[in-house]
Amino acid sequence: MDIEDELFSTKDFYLACFLKVKGLKLIGVDKIEYGKDFYFKFERIPNLDNLITSFYADKEDVSANRFIDAIRALKALIHNIKER
Length: 84
What we know:
Shape: globular
Strand content: 15-25%
Number of helices: 3
Largest sheet: 3 strands, antiparallel
Radius of gyration: 13 Å
Number of domains: 1
Number of strands: 3
Helix content: 40-55%
C-alpha cells in the first residue's frame, strides 16, 4: 500500500480546520506551484467520509474556540510556507 493511499488531501481550508478540531493528525501542507492554494494532508481514518459528509451537510457541531484555534494554527503554517 502506497503512503499516499493512507492520506487524505484537501485544499478546503475550513474543512481542514474542522478535521483538525475532530482530532485527525495533520501530516503536512503543500503549496501548489504557481498558485495561492495549499493542500492539507491528513491521516485517513475509517469514518473520514462520514465526517466530510457531515461537515458539508452542516450536521456537525464543534467548539467555536477550538475551531478558531485550528484556523489560527493553519494560517500560521500557511504564512510560514509563503515566507520560504
